[in-house]
Amino acid sequence: MSDPVREPIRFIDERTAAAPMLRKTLRYLFPDNWSFLLGEVALYCFIVLIATGVYLALFFDPSTAKTVYHGPYNELQGREMSAAYKSVLDISFSYKAGLLLRQTHHWAADVFIAAMSIHLMRVFFTGAFRKPRELTWMIGLLMLFISLLEGYLGYSLADDLLSGMGLAIGYGVGLSLPIIGGPMTLAIFGAPFPGKPIFWSRMYIAHVFLIPIVLAILISVHLALVALRHHTQFRRSPRHTNRRLIGVPLFPGQTPRSLALMLFTAALLFLLGGLIQINPIWQWGPFEPYWGTNGAQPDWYLGWLIGALRLMPSFDLTISHFTLVPNPFWGGALFPLIVLAVLAAFPWIERRLTGDRAVHNLADRPRDAPNRTAFGVAFLAWVFLIFVFGSADRILVLWGISYNVQLYIFRIGIWVIPAVLFFVTRRWCRALQTSDRIEEIHEQAEHEAEEEAARRRAAQQPAGLARPILGCRGVLRRDFRELLAPRVGFLHSEVGEERAHHLQKAALLVKIRVKERHGVATSERLPHSDQVLVHADLVVLGLDRSLEDRQVDERILALLDVRLAFRLDSSDRRAGRGVGLGAEQREQVLQVLHVHPGLGQMPLEQPLDRVVLGVLDVVLEDLDHGLLHLQRRFELVLVQLLRRLQSLEHPGVLLPVGTGALTSRPVRAKTGRSARLAPPAPRPDPVRSGAGESPPRERSAGTATRMPAA
Amino acid sequence: MRKAWRWLVALFTLSAGGILRRRSEGQVGERIVPEGTPERSAENLVLILLAIASLFAIGFIVVYAEFGPQRLPNELLGICLGLSLAFVGAALTVISKRLVVEEELEEEYPEDHPEEQEKIAEIVHESGSRITRKRLLLGAGAATAGALGLAAVTPAVSLGPIWDTGPLDRSPWSRGRRLVDEEDQPYTAAEIEQETFYTAFPEGANKEDIGSPVVVVRLDPSSLHLPPDRQSWAPYGILAYSKICTHAGCAIALYRKPTFPTVEPKPALMCPCHYSTFDPARAAAVIYGPAGRPLPQLPLMVDAAGYLRAAGNFSARVGPSWWNVRSQPTEGSA
After folding, report:
1. Cα angle, residue A604 at apex, residues A603 and A609 outer, rounded to 5°
2. Cβ separation of B252 and A292 shorter than 8 Å?
């Protein structure tokens, strides 16, 4: 009975009663996506940092006492320097494998912060910071900023020329804090720069003890928060929902993966540390406050601060002899604080702006939230451009662009480029969204058309009455048919076939506009014969009977000129050339209002006509209300609009025909309204004659002239 | 005999029962992790990869032992350790791709617990039934915590001169002090040439003090545009400014010297950290870059022996700006 697996488990459970928890932990589910591993990379870098850091601490001497160097590095032979700098030289040259560990430590710090930053972007652009994960997000941010400080302290400790210059800048930024800057910085440094010798042991204890402990605690809390609420996931299939997580269990599936990632991360860091030189402090030499060197660049993660410090125009904010805000404050303190504040507040800002307070376990794709993505890209570009300016002196050396010229280009560019990127990104996201939806609807429509055909064959119904005129969903179509079938006769007898066809077109137009308002392209199809599927737009344009592709194409191209918001069915071979209009027309939907006067020219002889106009009026008005919410999520707009449409359901307001069948779901109500006014066109002739009066034609002379003779 | 037979039967029954029970356990007990097909080739691959990883690890030790510190090839150490880790990683990748049972499980996301929340609130509320002046007590508790917290951080005041910003005003310069170079050799006015710059310190002072270093440049006296009260500060066109940038405290380590003065910009002092640029001819006014105020100027004079001496203290406080940096400096202390 000595099972090597059961025995230790029994031992542990008998002493901790933790078996249920252990089992749950082993079966914790990880969603399968590469981008979810970025945070893990950061964690493994942290482990490498601790491991190599412990080694380095065994040899490092945090003292500013003066010594004279006598060691293997000839160029510094006999130079006076601090004990700290000398001990780093010794680590690099006198202790075996010391250089490897030091360089690996440095590389690990750089990769650590890079991994954190990319992880942050991933979380931002997928909306994974939303409820219930706001705290995880905040703690992650806090860790990132603390890590920046930790890295800064780390390379300041070496006391080479570059680190001394970095410390001087830190001192300058510290002094520049309004009011408290002077006393606070003096307290930390102990005396004016370069400070008292004790300052070195303060930095050292912060770097090797205080901050690592804080980071370790924050990492634990971060991971605990992730585990308590579980990972987010992408909607890769209909099975991935907001309530159900699909993934690979920690054991056995995820364990070898994560361990492999850890080993690969460590391997990369040690290879970098062995093969690629980083921070060769012996080349910089020791530091004295009165020495400086040109072309100084900090570690990459502080480049944005250097850039901000360099970009600021020359001014201190003063009132007579009081200096309220010295210059380094803007770039060195305010700028990172703004970045931190914006990122930290973002989950709440987004809640406020979208009104979306729901729990989100499904991660967005960037395109799903165009405004967030656009803002993220703009914000990132802002920070990144400032970061790039931090290397302006290198750019000067590399490409010979004058520093002055760069300064003025960047001072404007950091505002203009993000603004442009905001709009470009938003439009791009929306175009992607629209194309997704069109795809979706096409698939659905194909599917339903097949279903419908099968059903019709089964029922042996006459095609004329059961045409799927409106609604691309099976439910809607059924609903519509129930609603319409008894009334077709009524409509025809009341208004005559020609007018009925007209009304049908008007209703279709409304419906198309309604759908386009949401970025939903309709793929309405009116099967006029068994073979030909005709796009609803073509019906509206009066082209549904044109059998020649050329005519259709000409007409469509003419419409492109007048920017009528409409969309084409890519599966319709005749309209193929118009496909790819993209989403840009979506924003111009207000132009739909032009349709109204066009429709107004329809003779108002029958009361039914007024009803049509009434409905159009109300729907268009609702669209305008809907526009106010265009910035929100698609679903919210839909709900808003449907609610408004539903509120029109008071009997007797508009409708000459009974409203009995219109009480069920809002979606049905919408379709029902259009449907009631849109009986199918029974014969081709009226359509052709009606084409001359079709609304879009009145909007564009060009269109009219290009109209093929009916 | 009979006894023995009974024993035999009993034994048989027992063992048969054991076997049967074991069999039924194997058949009835449902697996948690689904069964996969064994893959010996993958196992072999893992073994090979692990062996290579061990070889590299041993290689690391050999390299470490074999070479002296000066001749130690850092690259070789890095390759050994890195590749050893990478091969273990590769072995684990093979395990995860080919030897671990593939599972995709479903699980409900954790829900909120409104009832529990309510229960906790009730526990807190009901526990205070004996206390009548909750707010007062809470306030008193908070005040005490604040006082205690303040007391706890008070020792931090000893970190440095928190209340006294006097050290920031300190300058080792005073009237009559000679300018010396890094080797403590005094500068004479004659050895200061145009088109270059010199770093000078007050004789006998601590050179690391940021109030100490000054840059000394010589310009054509006719090109100077100093304020009226500083006309006498630049004998023979020799000027001295604090070497510490007024922006963020780096050393002014760059001097721009026009090679073709008719087409190139004027001479300027520059800080390499953020490229603040100062015009030495105009009392080090900022011509460019982020610095918010000019470099403090040190008035100079030349003594009878030709040595450069300070004619007083700096025109303003040295170093990066802080809230009181622009008020009148106290005269030459320390």
Report:
1. 110
2. yes
